[in-house]
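note to self — DONT lose this again. spent like an hour looking for the file last time. sequence + predicted structure for the chain T wanted, 190 res
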Amino acid sequence: MTLKRILGALALLLTPALAFAHPGHGDNGLIAGIGHPLGGLDHLLAMLAVGLWAAQQQGAARWALPCTFVGTLLIGGMLGFEGMNLPALESGIAASVLALGLAVALAVRPPLVMAVGATALFALFHGVAHGLELPDMSSPWTYAAGFVAATAVLHVAGYALVRVLPQAAAPLVRLAGAASAVTGVWLLAG
């Protein structure tokens, strides 16, 4: 699969969002859910990094990391819908940008249980943040469907980018991870 085809598929996946971009369609939160991970730099970088990092792994970690993130994100979202907050929520999200960026930059391959545990912890912070920001008059389920779908697309985009690029481009992927880590430091400082 070429990069052009992957980007085309991603564009097709996001095309329905364009139809609902103007008022009057009553999306019940779907578009807001899609927009949340795409609209915040912290969420965008962390979710792309999960895909990049998964593609750098071997064996079960390649699918376990994104699946763990999406599943735990949904659990965190449900907790957020109920009003549960986590201490240092924004710092936890910023730390996820830093840590996931470093994981990509260093192409670390920890034991699967450690990688899954860290991924789940980061996803919980992101999920609770998404859930707490449920727009008024929106269905939690359509909002959740939106942020879960957008997250999965970002994971796939990061994964596909690594898998499609020639091996010679690996330093660019690591550089992207380093840039994400620097952004995480900036977010933590701010």
